[in-house]
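Q: Structure for this?
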Amino acid sequence: MLAAALAATNPYSLALGYLVLLLTAAAARLPWLRMMGLSLYAAVFTVLYIVSLRGGMLAHAVLIVKAITPALAVLMLIVSTPYPRIFSLLSAVLPEILAAGLFMTYRTLFILLDMMDNFVAAIRLRGGFSPGSLYKNSANISKGIGMLLVRAVERSSRLYAVMVVRGYSGSMAGQPPVKLHREDWLPLGTGMVILTLVILWR
Amino acid sequence: MTHMHIPDFVLPVWLWVSGFVVMAAALGFSLLRLRSMDKKKKIPLLGAISAAMIVVMSLEIFPIVYHINLSVVAGILLGPALGFVAAFIVNLMLALLGHGGVSVIGLNTILLGLEAVLGHTFFSLFRKVLPVFWRAAAATVLTFVSTTMLLIGIVAASNVDPLRFLHADEHRLVLQEGPVLISKFAILVLSFGVVGWIIEAAITGAVVKFISQVKPDLLSHKLHDGPDQGRERGKTGD
C-alpha cells in the first residue's frame, strides 16, 4: 500500500484502494469507522500543506489520498496485529537498544496515559483549569508534566528492578519472525492488486 | 516547530530517502556513544521519557489549543545521544499510530532529535549564567528557532511541483503549474511559531524547575556535571 501511494499519479486508483481497505476492514470486523476517522486526521495536515501550493483540484485530491491511504493501511496493521509481533519484526532489523526501547515505550505509554487522565480530572475538580486564563492553565499543566516525568522515571526504576529479578539481561525476548500462513496472503494479495492497479492507471 | 505534518509521499523521493540516510547515520553515531552505558538502567528510562513525550503531545493548552512537545526536556534529562534515540522511537510510534507519515519518519526524527541535542547543548552552555528556569526557557527558544529554520529549508528544498504527480494530459486534466510558495509557508510557520516558542519555553522552564526542586538528581546527567556539581543540584529560583 505504501508503494502504491508512492507510485500513484491520479487520485482515482488510490481512492479505490482506500475503499478496498475499508471494505476489507469491515469484512474482518475491525472498527472500520474509527479507523477511517483516524486516517482522515492526516487529511487535515494535508489541507494545511496544499494551501501553500498552486494546482488544480485533482492535484490536491492526489495529495489528500496519498496521505490518508497509507495512514489507513498502518492503522489496519496496528488494529489487526498484536504489538509484540510487530516489534519482533522490527527487532529483526533494528539494533537491540531500539527494539527494547520500543517495547518499553509501548508498555509505559498506557500507564502514563492513565496517570495523565487522573491528573487532568483532579485538576479540573479542584478548579485548576480556567477557560480564559492561559497563565493559570500553563502553570498547572507544567507542574502536572513535571510530576508525570518524575513518576515515569520512578516507575521505570521499579520496572527495572522487577525485570532484573525476572532475569532481564538487557535484551527483550520477543517472538521470532513467523512464516507466512495462508491467511496472510489475502492482505498481501490485496495490496499487490492495488499496486498493480495504480501502476497501470498512471 | 517540532514535527513535520507533511503527509506521505508529497516530498520528492530523494529528500525523504536522504532523511532516512541521515537519520540512520545519526542513530548509528548515537548508539556508538551509548555502547558503554548501563543498558539495563537506561532502557527503562528511555522508554519512560519516550512514552511521556507521546502522552504530553496529546495535551492541549486552552484557550489556544497548543500542543506541547517535550523534546528539549528529553534532551536535558537523557543527554544528546539517548535523546536522539528517544526522538526516533517517538516518531516511529506516532507513525505506527497513524499520526504522521511513514516516509517522513527520517526527516521528523532529524528535527525532533536535533531539538533534543540542541536543547541539551544550550542548557549546558548557560549553566553558570542563568537560573534553571531561564536556562531551560532560553535553550528552548534557541532550539526551536534553529529547527524551524531547518524545517523551512527542508520544504524549500523539496520544491514540490504538483504536475509531477499527474499526467497533464490535455484530454483529461488541466492543471496550473506551480511550485510551493515558500514565502507563504515561511510566514505561516514563523508567525505561529513565535507564539509556540514562547509557550513552549515557559512550560519547559517550569517543568525543568519543578524537576530541579523535586528530583534534582534527574538533571545530573554526566554531561552536565562539572566540579561544582554539588552546588548546582537543587538550585532554584527565577
